[in-house]
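Course exercise 7: structure representation. Students receive a sequence record and must write out the corresponding structure in token form. The form below is the worked example handed out in class, using ABC transporter permease (300 residues). Read each field label carefully; the graders check that inputs and outputs are placed in the correct fields and that the protein name is recorded exactly as given.

STUDENT ID: A-19
EXERCISE PROTEIN: ABC transporter permease
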Amino acid sequence: MSDMLIRETTAVEAPAPAPAPVDSARTRVLGVLVTVRRNWALVLSAVVLVLAVGFALFPSFFASGDPLQGVPADKLQGPSLAHWFGTDNIGRDVYTRVVHGAGLSLTATLVAVGIALVVGSLVGLLSGAVGGAVDAVLMRIVDVLLSIPALLLSLALVTALGFGTLNVAIAVGVGLVANFARVMRSEVLRVRRAQYVEAAFASGVRWHTVLHRHVLRNAYAPVVALAAVEFGMAVLAVSSLSFLGFGAIPPTPEWGSLISEGRNYLATAWWMTTLPGLVIIAVVLAAHRIGHTIDDRSRR
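STUDENT ANSWER:
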């Protein structure tokens, strides 16, 4: 009997076997792979935008050739290992021109989105915070802008301002102001009714301080998401105006002007328009995907 008790006590007090060590590095790698698999579209969009930014910032790294000089003997050659996007009608490498054209196109896009973001946010903030006659007047102006297609409004403005990449950026930015103003106003009205904002006003905090510390900080997230979405639309608008001849003076490459140069050779050299067009489409879709992801996460 005593031997049985000793054996039972020993069995109870025996330490449990140590768990097998977990390979933390392998677990992290598997976790990253699963995340990439679930969000492959978002990862691909990020890669596309990173490449586009790389083209704009370091064009010589991605294409070391001269975008303005061509070899007449190599004109209208199709895509190959020597010329990834083929050559144009005077022997210039189309891929090199696309890479070097990203700088002007994306710079104009950033300027346009920056103008729309700043001006539209200020209009929406002032309209939603002040209300009354100020809100009515500003929103009627915004309604007029929204009633005109953005591209048509940009075309009218750039016609008045004149040629040039900067004028194209200003025209596109003004055409996008109304969208930012509407979104900012709706968010300001939502935050303005919050209890902590009412308490700040009741406690005697200055009007501009409340707007900066409480209203603006809690209303900007959807506007930032809209900026990411409108970045793609601005790329398309800037390229469209450049296609119509309002951008940089040839032979300076821009994405829209590259498509315009190849439209007379569609039957014999489709790559001159198709491949730069696919680059624009990829950047627009990538910006839309990232913008919608930011918007979805900001609403949670």
